[in-house]
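ok so I'm stuck.
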Amino acid sequence: MIIKRKKSERYRGSQTHGSGAKKKRRGAGNRGGRGMAGTGKRADQKKPTILKLYGNSYFGKSGFKLPKKVKRNIKAINLDDLQILINKNNLKEDINLNELGYNKLLGSGNLLKKHNIACSYCSKKAKEKIEKLGGTINVSI
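replied:
not stuck anymore, here's the structure
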């Protein structure tokens, strides 16, 4: 007994299933489909009718837009890099990071002496290390 594959199975992957142009197998004669078929961007001949029936809201997008996330421009500095800045510029005990162009202090590295630091943001690790040395950190936005 010969087992034949179905014809529809053989047509998988072909766009038109052996029927020529897409239009020809629509089953709606030569009118380009049934109902609202073909009312996309390029159906210029149908646009006046659609606009009369449905108004301008038929075309284009509708719905709500998700709110955009607010980007904060955070320029961070590690304790190691801060120590290099302190040595380079001979900074004293009181340091304002905002004046130096930074607004966040991160905890990688160590400081050699105690300092009183003012900044906008600070990590827990950095705060712990500064307070361990006997310094203070003032976080104000």
